[in-house]
Design brief:
522 residues, mainly alpha
């Protein structure tokens, strides 16, 4: 290209400082700062070879132009983001360094700016990513990708109003994008604009009636505007499309609760369990972003997601890739101890325990995972030793106190176990097993009112242990001569036990309930 000398400050034509390396050009924050480059000596143009001078002048002019905008891009470009590569992992550097170099050499290229933005976004450097996306969107205003990605990163930064505007632009450029309209709905809903978000979700559903994410978003928008009947229809459709999405079931349960349908609410909570996973938005651009990461953290997060979904074999592979990405990273080995334990592969778990122990001997989580595995295999003394080691590292770990207490009970050390249950509740008041065991001890000592307070803490969240906890609460109320409350909790326990297939417990509950109701009739 021809150098437009009219766009270069006159001082640069006669005194041209020579940057020592291209990365120094990232320091540009505006046209006046180009005068502030420092070099050991200033060299008159007359002593430079013409070719060297021209290259230097072209580079400086390029940076100057990148900070100024041009006649065909009236909006001024933000500066290229700067960041320290030396503080990043090898995997991050391998992705970010070439993207940075390419953007420096091609500051007016929207693809180069967008590629840098995506690399920064993939590694969660969101402020820098937003600046680079803005450059790409300004340089290529009709390219929907950069508007879409800018909307995503702004939403992650909590700037939902601005995010919505960019998703709206992306949807206008690519009207058939279900993802853009779904993200638009999410941003508008987060920005407190449920009526507008409802229309965005409806448009997404018109494009793809099978989008569980859009139906779920529409249900939340309708619920926010007080249209409970329409919200119910949307949530039910979302559940049909994504029955594994616990977040949908939880929202449906809350709506049932507000409508006075307690039984339906309980059923949905049971089916959700402790999972709050939302139905995913099928977005190819997000998938492309995720694929940029090849570092340990990306694989670790993938493993955590797969493990939470019960896909244990796949989680093993993801954790293995995280360990391969960084041989000194202990966390994937710590997680593999737990996953292999669930898979009943003790030899593999032991191998990763040894590796993690060498890398992170003071990891509380490692010793808890190993103690849990030892307890599952009835190696109780080894389990107790592991839990004690975890408590040496963190004496305030309520879960480790409760785990150790359970092991001590199995070993017949009841007094010591009780002390650790007390410590568990002291450091973690919501610890359900510890509260239940303390309640049992209080009932044995005829301190029923205190026991009830502990039992009430065990009722949330609803899971397979809840029927037993409700049974204990029914027994406690009966002991203080409150049969109505006892019947209430027995009925709740029976309903849950039947729903969860706990047939033996259900039979016992049914017998007690019949006896109590018969006594009430007499």
């Amino acid at each position: 290209m021809w150098l437009d000398l009219q766009r270069v400050p006159l001082s640069l034509l006669f005194w041209a400082p020579v940057p020592t390396r291209p990365a120094e050009l990232l320091a540009c924050r505006g046209p006046m700062e180009l005068h502030n480059y420092k070099v050991p000596t200033r060299t008159r143009i007359g002593t430079l070879k013409f070719a060297s001078w021209l290259r230097t002048l072209a580079a400086v002019a390029s940076v100057f132009a990148s900070c100024q905008g041009t006649p065909d891009t009236p909006e001024a470009l933000p500066p290229l983001p700067s960041f320290r590569l030396d503080a990043m992992s090898p995997g991050a550097r391998a992705t970010l360094e070439p993207a940075q170099d390419h953007a420096i050499r091609n500051p007016r290229d929207s693809e180069a700016n967008g590629a840098l933005a995506m690399a920064l976004h993939a590694y969660e450097l969101r402020e820098g990513a937003a600046a680079a996306y803005r450059r790409a969107a300004t340089l290529a205003p009709n390219e929907g990708r950069w508007q879409h990605y800018l909307g995503l990163v702004l939403a992650e930064l909590g700037q939902h109003s601005q995010a919505a505007e960019h998703f709206r632009r992306a949807a206008a450029i690519k009207p058939d994008s279900v993802a853009a309209r779904t993200w638009l709905g999410e941003s508008l809903l987060s920005d407190g604009r449920p009526a507008e978000s409802q229309r965005a979700f409806e448009q997404a559903i018109e494009l793809d009636p099978s989008s569980a994410a859009a139906h779920y978003g529409l249900g939340r928008a309708r619920d926010s505007t007080g249209d409970s009947d329409a919200a119910l229809r949307s949530f039910l459709r979302a559940v049909d499309l994504a029955p594994e999405a616990g977040a949908v079931r939880y929202s449906l349960a809350m709506l049932y609760q507000s409508l006075g349908r307690a039984s339906d609410a309980k059923q949905q909570l049971e089916m959700a369990g402790g999972v709050r996973q939302q139905p995913p938005i099928n977005d190819p651009l997000v998938a492309a972003l995720r694929n940029l990461r090849r570092d340990r953290q990306k694989y670790l997060q993938e493993g955590l997601r797969l493990e939470s979904e019960g896909l244990l074999a796949e989680a093993v592979q993801a954790y293995g890739r995280a360990a391969e990405a960084d041989a000194r990273y202990a966390q994937p080995h710590i997680n593999l101890v737990a996953v292999y334990g669930k898979l009943e592969r003790l030899k593999d778990a032991s191998r990763h325990y040894d590796r993690a122990l060498a890398l992170a001997p003071d990891s509380e989580e490692l010793h808890v995972n190993w103690g849990t595995l030892m307890a599952q295999h009835d190696r109780l003394e080894e389990a107790a030793a592991s839990f004690r080691r975890a408590l040496e590292i963190n004496p305030h770990a309520g879960g480790a106190h409760a785990d150790l207490a359970w092991v001590l009970e199995q070993l017949g050390r009841h007094t010591e176990a009780l002390e650790h249950y007390r410590l568990a509740v002291q450091y973690d008041p919501a610890n359900r097993p510890a509260n239940f065991e303390l309640a049992r001890d209080l009932i044995r000592n005829d301190r029923i009112e205190e026991a009830i307070q502990h039992l009430l803490r065990t009722l949330e969240p609803v899971d397979e242990r809840t029927p037993t906890y409700l049974y204990g609460l029914a027994d406690a109320y009966l002991r203080i001569d409150e049969p109505r409350k006892s019947v209430e909790y027995l009925r709740r326990a029976l309903e849950l036990a039947n729903g969860m297939g706990q047939s033996e417990l259900a039979r016992n509950l049914e017998e007690d309930l019949r006896a109590l109701e018969a006594a009430g009739r007499r």
